[in-house]
Amino acid sequence: MKIIVTSLFVQDQEKALEFYSETLGFEKRHDVPAGEFRWITLVSPDDKEGTELLLEPNDHPAAKEYQKKIFADGIPATMFGVADVRKEYERLLEKGVNFTMEPTEMGEVTIAVFDDTCGNLIQIAQK
C-alpha cells in the first residue's frame, strides 16, 4: 500500500491552482469537472509519477471550520520537502509569498512556514 493522493482544503480552486503551479512550481496532473467543482491534482516536477496533491474545495462546513481553526492556531495543513529551505525561502519571497516563520533550525531539520493565500499555512522542510 502507498499514498497516491493527499488532499488539501482550499477556499478557491482556481486561485489555488494558480498559486501551487505558478508560484510554487507544481505541475497540473488532472483537472476534470466533478459536479459543481473540479478534480484538480498537482505533482512535483521532480516526481511526476509520485503522490498527487488534490486541491479539495472546502465547501463542507466541517472542512471550513477545520481549515479556519488550524490556520488561526498557526498549524500547517501540510509539509513539502525541499533540498535547501533558505534558498526556497528566498525564491518564494521574491514571488511575494508571505512567510509566518522564517527558516528555523529544529534539531536536524530546518523549516519555514508560509501562507498559501487559499486558507492554509504550508511548512517546507529540509532534513
UniProtKB/TrEMBL annotation:
Pfam families (UniProt xref): Glyoxalase
Source taxon at top rank: Bacteria
Coiled coil (UniProt feature): none
Domain VOC: 1-127
The protein's name in its UniProt record: VOC family protein
